[in-house]
Amino acid sequence: MQAIWTLIKRELSAQFNSVVAYIVVILFLLITGGMFFLDFFEGIQELSLRRFFGDAPFFLAFFAPAMSMSVFSEEKRAGTLELLMTMPVSDLQIVIGKFIGVVLLLAVVLLFTLPYPITLYFLGDLDWGPVIGGYLGLLFLGAAYLSVGVMVSSWTKNQIVAILLAFFLCFVLFIIDRLLGVQSGNTATILETMSANYHFRSISRGVIDLRDLVYYVSVMVICLAAARTSLAARRW
């Protein structure tokens, strides 16, 4: 556990020392903040964060890969991954430590959006159920996207390749349920089950369904296992 905590702190330090990370975080906050405050200019019809939670998953599909693209790619480019792998830590510990590090960064970003519901709370009677569900959903959704980014980053030392491929995979997970308009029956059920956005919408209604959490955890486990396998292959 101590080894993982050390790796988490190492990853957080690398992220907070990265100009790219600050740019990504600021852009995400500016865009989501702009969407939230746009409601004020249009006139608030109801005290809810429906628009924020409706649009944030789309932007996370782009920003999460940007947050995780350097997790392994930068280590490979700088030649420090080999040094890291000589330390008394397992490949799985390295992957988990780095993954938790970027998830904590995501959690910090989401904390900066808390003024949105707090503002609505002071304006009237805000229903906190969907708000809590929405933030929980964003955390799980973002963590799933980040796990995809970690996996892809373990495949290449080129950060551009890493971010583009992660963009593509996350966007597929986001949009796959939109194909339901041209599908039906068992195909529609399968596409729903595979859709990250479908499971997010379920959680954001304020109803926590174990199936939705299992979906996100499954995506994380599969992607992190693939990243671990990629690291293990470098030892052969």
What's the SSE blueprint?
Elements: H1 2-16, H2 19-42, H3 50-68, H4 70-78, H5 81-85, H6 91-111, H7 115-123, H8 128-153, H9 159-175, H10 186-194, H11 196-204, H12 210-233
Helix pairs in contact: 1-6, 2-3, 3-8, 3-9, 3-11, 6-8, 6-12, 8-9, 8-11, 8-12, 11-12
Number of helices: 12
How far apart the termini lie comes to: 26 Å
Percent of sequence in beta strands? under 5%
Strands, count: 0
Instruction: Provide the helix percentage.
Output: over 70%
Order of helices and strands: HHHHHHHHHHHH
Structural Rg: 19 Å
Question: Which parts are unreliable, with pLDDT below 50 for 5 consecutive residues or more?
Answer: none
* Structural classification: mainly alpha
Q: How many distinct domains?
A: 1
Question: Main traits of this protein?
Answer:
single chain, 236 residues, mainly alpha
Write structural notes for this entry.
- The structure is a single chain.
- The protein is mainly alpha-helical and 236 residues long.
- It has one domain (2-233).
- The protein has twelve helices and no strands.
- Helix 2 (19-42) runs antiparallel to helix 3 (50-68), helix 8 (128-153) packs antiparallel against helix 11 and helix 8 runs parallel beside helix 12.
- It has helices at residues 2-16, 19-42, 50-68, 70-78, 81-85, 91-111, 115-123, 128-153, 159-175, 186-194, 196-204, 210-233.
